Every structure is written in structure tokens, then in C-alpha cells.
Amino acid sequence: MTDYRKPIRAAREKVRAFGTRMAARVQVWKGKIRRFIKPAGSAFSRTGVRRALLAGCSFVILAGGAAYGHHYVKANTVSYYELYRDGELIGTVESKEAVEAFLSGKREELAAANPGITMELETGELTYVERSEYKAHPETEASLAALEELLDSHAVGVEVKVNGKLIGVVPDEETARQVLDRIKSEFAPEAADEAGDAAVRQPEVTALAYAGNAEAEPKAEVESVRIVEQVDTGRVEIDPARISDADTLYERLVTGTTKKTTYVVQKGDCIGCIASKFDISPEIIYKNNPQIEDDLIRVGDVLDLTVLKPQVTVETVERVSEIEEIEPEVIIRKNDEMRAGQQKTIQAGVPGTKRVTYRLVKQNGYLMSEEIVDEQVLEPAVPAIIMKGTKVIRGEGSGKFAWPVSGAKITSKFGKRWGRQHKGIDMIGGKSILASDTGVVKFAGKKNGLGNAIIIDHKNGYETVYGHLSKIDVKKGQIVEKGEKIGVMGNTGNSTGTHLHFEIHKNGTPKNPLNYL
């Protein structure tokens, strides 16, 4: 510890020397003063003057000496800091800035030695206590060297977990986000995600009804893109060697199992039922099993259900619009002057057009569901007017068709479906099946692929087909009126769940029912 008595003794010696010099000067001034004072008996006596001078000189000497000593000590007092780490004294430093500059240099060295990785310097809790002493000498270099021995470091990364399972660790949050966006963009390039912060680009349309239908010219818009699984990210301390780059994390997320999976068809199975059981798209079953025709599968058939199952599932929701044709209504006018069975075209029908909008839900590019969400008539159809004889043939239809179920919702449309022709449309809704138009029951019974089925001849070139019924309420040859109940919706035959398969044939050729309903 510093001895404070030495500087005080030195100060006292300097004061004494200063007093001696001041006494000599007083004697000189005393001689000068005598020449100006008055003789004895005057207002000022010699004794009074002497006493006054001595008192004044004493005060000056003492005051001057004290002031000199104070300024001397103050001028040689040094301020510094005691540096503590986690409450323990490390040493003394000249300033806080010196410590911060030292630590900043260490951080730069750490970053240079670990490029692309976020490194954190473990300094502990550093605190300072300010001190000041006479001619103090803070040991800054020694204190910083001691602090350096106590420093440590660690890497900081961002871990990516899928449904609680750790997939990998990347350098930062931005890298994780870019990888996830890259995966989503592969199924909906530049599409708006749930946050709505990306531009929309029209993706390739893959709706069932549009496959191979170039004339439809559908327009698609991606509504949303999301990853189905719960993906969590968070900062974590980790060994730098365990931090992955963006490409490695991407491969881990998109690589899944391709283990061979087969299934033997059981009694009561259907394509949709099997797809639901294995949580896959029916499209995968058709793609892996090209031998399936017209949805026909038999008990004992071995189906290949192998599919790549990556760590994450990208779900996209698309709105697809298509211009479709509206078949003209046929208006029958009766003429008493014409014989029964004769007819004459008064006005030829002209098809109209309508814009139909579908909502498609896909997972990793495979279609999971589709539904009609909007219809807009662009050009109304011009009805055909036909004059017929007055002798009305019982069971003859009007040529204008009604929906065969109430509250109908389309589950599969007409046209190419996974490389095969779907001759009608599938729908769900009310369980009662209604005659779409007046006609005569041509067939009522079991039909290959359709299960319990009804075919109605409308005696005007049109026939309608109703498939997969659980119950048939009419008989062959029976005349049915438009809207009359003919059966109950079911899941018989080669069915993909309880629904109605509905077809419209014109002169023996299947037509798209949506153009007539």
C-alpha cells in the first residue's frame, strides 16, 4: 500500500523553505516602510507597524504554503479503475475504453477464425470500481492479459425442428427461412405464402379435369402456401463443427423414405378408401398402378403404394378458372297438326359459355381435393326450339337437366383423370337420388364398376346414368318424372367412398354433365 506520509513531509519542507524566503523579503520591506512612517507620537508607532507587518507576513506564509501543497498533491493524483470479473478482482486498468477495445479485437479475431459462423465471446460479468491515488500506476496490460486467460467462446446457431424432431442447425434465422421458402417455391414458385409477402406467379395447372385439355386454357392463382408440419426455429449454443449450410439442411428436409409399400385389396375397399387409409393422394395409386381401368379393383389385387415421404409437406391452395361450354336447352313445342313422332327444328340451339372456378388443395404437388367455388355465365346459351306432334310419348324428356342430388358438391369432374377418361362427374350431397329429367328406366340393377346403377332413356337422344347406389327404387320399363326419387346414394361397385357417379350421354356419346346442369 502507498505511504502517504512521504509526500506530506516533502510538502512541509517546501513550505519551510518558502517561509525562509518570505522572511528575508519582509526585512527588505520593513526598511522601506520606515522611510514613510511618521515620528514617535504620531498616529502610527513603530511598534504597531512591526506587529502588523509580522501578523500579515505570518498569514501570507501559512496560506501560501498550504495552497502550494494542495495543488502539488492534486496535480500528481491519478484516476484509474479496478476491473472485476464475476465479482473477483482481475487488476487495475487506466480506462473502461481500454477494456472494450481489447474485447472488440478478440471478437474480430474469433470471427476471422470461424467464417460464416456466429461466435460469441464469453467474458463473464465485468464490473468496474473507480479509484484515485497519488502518482498511481494502473497495470492495464497485466490486467488484460489476466482477463484473456479467463475468456472463452462458443458458436451460436439456429436449430430447425419438424414436429419436435431436430433436423439440423444452420448459422442464423435468415438461412433457415431461405431454406423453407426454397422448398415451398418448388410447389408454388413465387407464390404468396400465408404472410402474403411474395409475388404471385401462375403455376402449372394440374387439376384432374384439365390434364391434357389444352383448349380449356385455365387460369390459376395460388391462394396460399404452407408447410403442414409444425416447424420451429430457435437459437442454440453448439459446436461449430455441427453447424450445417443451407444446402445440407435442404437435403435433410426434402429427403424422405422410398421404402417399397404394397397393399392387398380387401373386400369393401375402394381407391379413395385406400388413399385415405394411407394418407396419400388417389393420384399416387393411379400413377403407381397403371393396370387400374375405370376405377376397377378386385379383392386380392396387389397395389403399389410407394411414395416419397419427406420431412415436410408443402400444402398449396389454388383457384383455377376455366371457360366451359353451356349446352343449349331444348324447348319442345307441340303442334296438333303434326303426327306423333314427327318433329321440326324451329330454332337451332347455340351453346353459351361460363367461367367455372375450382379450388384445388395439393400436398407436395399431389391433388388431395377439388371443388367448384364459383360459376359466372359469360354468354347465355340460345335454346333449341323443336316442334313436335301433339301425341306426346310418355317418358319423353325436356332436354333440360336438373341436379340429381340436392346441395350437390363436385368431388371429381368429367374428362381425363390421371391418363384415363372419366365419363361423368362424382358428387356428394343429399342422399336421395333424383331423376335428372323425365324418361323411361332402361336399366336397373348391378353393373360392372358402377355397382347398383340406373340408366334412364329420355326418348330424345339423351340418356342419364346413376352409379354406386346403395338402394334402387325403380324397375326397368318404369316411367319416371323429372325430380322423382329413383334411389339412395351409396358406395357399391368400384366406388371411392359414398357418392353418386352421374353421366349424360347424347346419341351414345358421353358429355360433360356440367355443360347441361
TrEMBL record:
What region holds the G5 domain?
Answer: 312-392
Q: Which PROSITE patterns match?
A: G5, LYSM
Signal peptide range = none
The source's superkingdom equals Bacteria
Q: Where is the LysM domain?
A: 261-305
Pfam families assigned to the protein according to its UniProt record, in alphabetical order? G5, LysM, Peptidase_M23
- Work out whether the entry's keyword set contains Signal: yes
What SMART domains does its record include? G5 (SM01208), LysM (SM00257)
UniProt KW keywords: Signal
UniProt protein name = Peptidase M23 with CBM50
